[in-house]
Write a structure and sequence with these properties.
CATH class of the largest domain in chain A: Alpha Beta
Structural class of chain A: alpha/beta
Number of helices of chain A: 17
CATH class of the largest domain in chain B: Alpha Beta
Radius of gyration of chain A: 26 Å
Largest sheet of chain B: 5 strands, mixed
Radius of gyration of chain B: 21 Å
Helix content of chain A: 25-40%
Oligomer: heterodimer
Structural class of chain B: alpha/beta
CATH superfamily of the largest domain in chain B: Spore Coat Polysaccharide Biosynthesis Protein SpsA, Chain A
Number of domains of chain A: 3
CATH topology of the largest domain in chain B: Spore Coat Polysaccharide Biosynthesis Protein SpsA, Chain A
Strand content of chain A: 15-25%
CATH architecture of the largest domain in chain B: Alpha-Beta Complex
CATH architecture of the largest domain in chain A: Alpha-Beta Complex
Distance between the termini of chain A: 71 Å
Number of helices of chain B: 13
Shape of chain A: globular
Distance between the termini of chain B: 61 Å
């Protein structure tokens, strides 16, 4: 009751209320409300016999509601009364408030009342993983929603460049979720094939699809254009050559709004084009505390090192992106998702994960990023230049350290893939980059803490290497 | 009464909108800090009681109602201070939580309107330091000539002890709808720069006061607050200030007389949970010794030190 009371305490313009509930605690709420300024009438509905006595509290049942049916400002319901709350749409309350038990579903209530009410407030008891610090975890999660100017909650941005062959599969998988409050923004980055036509065909079928045409400027610029035009409160990114499980955005969005998290993510699978096989990506942290949601920033920022880059299996809050001015860096030719992800995670205050594998990442197509040759890895150095600058602003040693770990991971990966002469050049530059902010001993500690022994060897070798670059 | 402490945003406009319809006094002043704004307000108060509200928190109507009711019940002239129990509103999760010291509060004030004499009950000093939860009698303030220290952050800490040690009649009122917001960007407590150093001035005031009054009962609560604030400030300080802060704190804690340390050790065993007690004792041991205090220079050394000690202690306990 604490949560609902505190929410009600911020509202001043309700006159009549309908209460649906049975518990004693809930009855007390009725008397508490009576003392609130401006309240004129309370209808109290419970299936059992009413023993409330007050002139201002009128017992009623849902079937024989008083004639003032249309004039009820707020509906408040208690645990276990979810079914009754669903049935009273025609009352059309401005405020729809209630609390739910652990397993009770909240999302369909929200979906239903978002069309009717201006404010929705749902509290649900939280299932806490065993051994969790109760204080960190909190005892409940809250969905607080307010009608916005736009009718869009989630914008999914797809940068399109010559992917005609893959588009139908991607679009079909997106459209499986029928929610009307989603928009799909296809940003056509000057494709020279029939991509735009394919999208155009689907636009006729589905009004949620939008096409933005622009001159070719790279993936980063396309995504930025998408961010600029997005109307939703939350943002998602999908690459049009990949595809998703039909329920991915449903599950992510459903999870992020309960608890007002800054970031929601799920696992992903790799899809091998030639063989058609899929494989779950396992070294990606989908465990506690993230699966039950965390508001601890030190835990959230560790996501930067213990999950894979993969920005497309997440949804992000637009407020955070705007507040911290996080954009894709258009000067980067590739891997523009790495800095975006790190910047966002360092800015986010809370995160939650859906521990399922819902995104299919296509591997083995021609001209793909990862399949590229050695030359492309040199872009890492400009990425880290951006990130060094970004992290410096925080003046936070913990963030600098996490960035060092990311550098170790990234450079280690690049070096393992590269061959030949260019590898040496990369080696020297990586050495310079790793020495910039953090010393040897500290880096060793960080490697042991976050990445495991595998990186100790090459890093120590790099450190002790006696020769200078010629 | 709204004291606009030199805001350069739309504060004035918003206030003016409300002034017209309500009984609100509005005062503008050049920026003097939170303490300065409160002092200005206190100068102008013409009611028997005064209470402070930070501009990001909020009160429910029944808060004032309940206070008035209980004041009337106890011939109001008598009561010098009213201690209330706020609730915490977490900005990120939108959850309201119990206030940090709720169990202690309920043990001292088992019901609304109970009166306690802080001179006889030293437990009361252990309350979470927060000015807004205290309602003060103007007569009392004027008698002891109380004002906040200006241009210092954390100006609540010293008055907490000063006011309680002067007060003889303190009434407690439980949860009545005072919501305290945490986790917003604008909060003073989230500042990480130079402001952290202000804590040293506050500590100095505090120590000077308890030594001049020579009140043994205050040693433990003051030490506890100092240790807790130090741990928290060190954790929050940014890379530019952390080292400096640790060095200064080292000097402060090194100078403390033996009595304070023994008081802390004794008190911690009686009143704090095991984890807290261990943390406080480790901190005070380390910060007082120069070669050990370096672990606080860096969060990483601190974390690793804590892990090692935990392991050692754990092993020791298992053997025992």
């Amino acid at each position: 009751m604490l949560q609902i009371k505190s929410y009600l305490s911020k509202i001043y313009d309700i006159k009549s209320v309908l209460l649906i509930g049975r518990t004693k605690e809930f009855q007390e709420l009725a008397f508490w409300l009576l003392r609130k300024k401006g309240i004129e009438k309370i209808h109290y509905c419970s299936q059992e016999e009413n023993n409330i006595c007050s002139d201002l509290i009128e017992p009623c049942t849902l079937k024989y509601m008083p004639h003032s049916r249309k004039q009820i400002d707020a509906v408040i319901f208690d645990r276990g009364c979810r079914e009754m709350a669903i049935d009273i749409q025609e009352i059309a309350p401005r405020f729809f408030i209630g609390r739910l038990d652990k397993e009770e579903e909240y999302f369909d209530l929200w979906e239903q009342y978002r069309q009717i009410s201006d404010f929705i407030y749902l509290e649900r008891e939280k299932t806490i993983w065993p051994g969790a610090n109760r204080e960190d975890a909190g005892s409940c999660e809250i969905l607080e929603w307010q009608r916005g100017e736009e009718d869009v909650e989630l914008s999914v941005i797809l940068p399109v460049y010559n992917v005609e062959a893959y588009l139908p599969e991607c679009i079909e998988s997106l459209l499986k979720w029928k929610a009307p409050y989603v928009e799909y923004l296809f940003v056509n980055d000057g494709s020279v094939d029939g991509s735009a036509d394919v999208i155009g065909r689907y636009m006729e079928q589905d009004r949620r699809i939008h096409l933005i045409d622009k001159k070719n400027g790279g993936c980063a610029s396309a995504r930025n254009r998408g961010i600029a035009q997005a109307k939703g409160r939350y943002l998602g990114f999908v690459d049009p050559d990949d595809f998703i499980e039909g329920s991915m955005f449903y599950q992510l969005f459903r999870r992020i709004i309960l608890g007002n998290y800054d970031l929601a993510y799920c696992g992903y699978k790799e899809y091998y084009e030639q063989s058609g096989n899929t494989e779950k990506i396992l070294n990606d942290c989908l465990k506690e505390p993230y699966d039950s949601g965390t508001y601890r920033q030190d835990k959230v920022q560790k996501l930067a090192v213990n999950t894979r880059v993969a920005i497309w299996r997440c949804i992000y809050k637009k407020d955070v992106i705007d507040h911290h001015q996080i954009r894709f860096h258009e000067d980067l030719k590739r891997f523009d998702d790495l800095p975006f992800r790190v910047e966002y995670i360092f800015a986010a205050k809370s995160a939650v994960c859906v521990p399922e594998y819902l995104y299919y990442y296509r591997l083995g197509r021609k001209g793909q990023d990862v399949a590229c040759s050695d030359e492309g890895f040199f872009v890492h150095f400009s990425i880290f230049e951006h990130l060094d600058k970004y992290v410096e602003k925080f003046k936070d040693k913990a963030k600098t350290d996490l960035l060092q770990v990311i550098k170790i991971q990234t450079h280690g990966f690049a070096l393992s893939k590269m061959k030949g002469k260019r590898k040496w050049e990369y080696w020297y530059r990586a050495r310079q980059d790793l020495n910039k902010n953090t010393g040897y001993f500290r880096t060793l500690c960080l490697i042991m803490m976050y990445t495991g022994k595998g990186n100790l060897g090459w890093y120590t070798g790099m450190k002790l290497w006696p020769f200078k670059r010629n | 009464m709204i004291v606009n402490d030199g805001s350069d945003d739309d504060t004035e406009e918003i206030c003016k909108r409300y002034i017209k319809e309500n009984k609100i006094d509005y005062i503008y002043q050049e920026n003097r800090g939170l303490g300065g704004a409160r002092n200005r307000g206190m100068d102008l108060v013409d009611t028997p009681y005064v209470s402070f509200l930070d501009s990001d928190d909020w009160l429910m109507p029944e808060y004032v109602e309940k206070l008035a009711y209980h004041l009337k019940r106890h011939k109001e002239e008598k009561i010098e201070m009213i201690m209330t129990l706020p609730q915490i509103f977490h900005e990120g999760s939108k959850i309201v939580k119990d206030w940090y010291d709720k169990p202690l509060f309920e043990s001292i004030f088992p019901e609304d309107g109970v009166i306690v004499n802080p001179q006889e009950n030293a437990d009361i000093y252990r309350f979470e330091v927060n000015q807004c939860r205290k309602v003060l009698q103007m007569k009392f303030i004027n008698r002891i000539h109380f004002r906040f220290r200006e241009r210092v952050k954390w100006e609540d800490v010293y008055p907490h002890f000063y006011l309680l040690s002067k007060c003889c009649v303190c009434m407690g009122i439980g949860e009545t709808g005072f919501y305290y917001r945490i986790g917003s960007h604008t909060q003073i407590t989230s500042l990480r720069g130079k402001e952290r150093m202000d804590i040293l001035v506050v500590f100095e005031d505090l120590l000077q006061y308890i030594f001049s009054e020579n009140r043994k009962a205050l040693y433990f609560p003051v030490m506890r607050v100092m240790v807790r604030f130090s741990i928290w400030c060190i954790r929050m300080a940014d890379t530019d200030n952390r080292k400096n802060l640790v060095d200064k704190l080292h000097l402060v804690f090194k100078r403390l007389p033996k009595e304070c340390i023994t008081a802390l050790k004794k008190g911690v065993k009686e009143c704090c949970g095991r984890a807290d007690a261990r943390q406080y004792l480790l901190f005070i041991t380390a910060i007082r010794r120069k070669p050990l205090s370096f672990v606080f220079y860096d969060y990483l050394w601190q974390e690793m030190g804590e892990k090692t000690i935990k392991k050692l202690l754990g092993a020791g306990e298992r053997v025992a």
